[in-house]
Amino acid sequence: MKGKREDYITWDEYFMGVAKLSGMRSKDPNSQVGACIVSQDNKILSMGYNGFPMGCSDDEFPWAREGEPFDTKYLYVTHSELNAILNYRGGSLEGAKLYVSLFPCNECAKAIIQAGIKTIIYDEDKYADTPAVRASKRMLDAAGVRYYQYNRTNREIMIRV
Length: 161
Description:
Distance between the termini: 28 Å
Strand content: 15-25%
Number of strands: 5
Strand order of the largest sheet: 2-1-3-4-5
Helix content: 25-40%
Radius of gyration: 17 Å
Order of helices and strands: HEEHEHEHE
Structural class: alpha/beta
Shape: globular
Largest sheet: 5 strands, mixed
């Protein structure tokens, strides 16, 4: 064989793949969201997925989407983006990129902005018309955080473990 192989995955495919793989760690029966934070020189800094905080049992806290607020997951779940930010132990995230499988909500947008992350690459934006995502985009725009949708290649990547 002459020369390098040409079918290697791109950085975007790699990092979005890591984000999606991270999301597969979530025990949420409805939403498996993953995030991957990357330095400006394409080094993975941190990862996260949606789940309960440490010490809060996945078997004892609710996963329900409907009912009294105290009995649903929404008051307890930490989103993947916030988990990735909180999981980072290396100092500043200033100028980093965030790959995430679902567009960040307003609460995560606050943390992203405060952490100094400058670019968000997201896969889905299924809640685009909700107040939380509209507020998120308003804050991100005001703070100069660039965001754009991941351009799917539809390449199938198979991993055997």
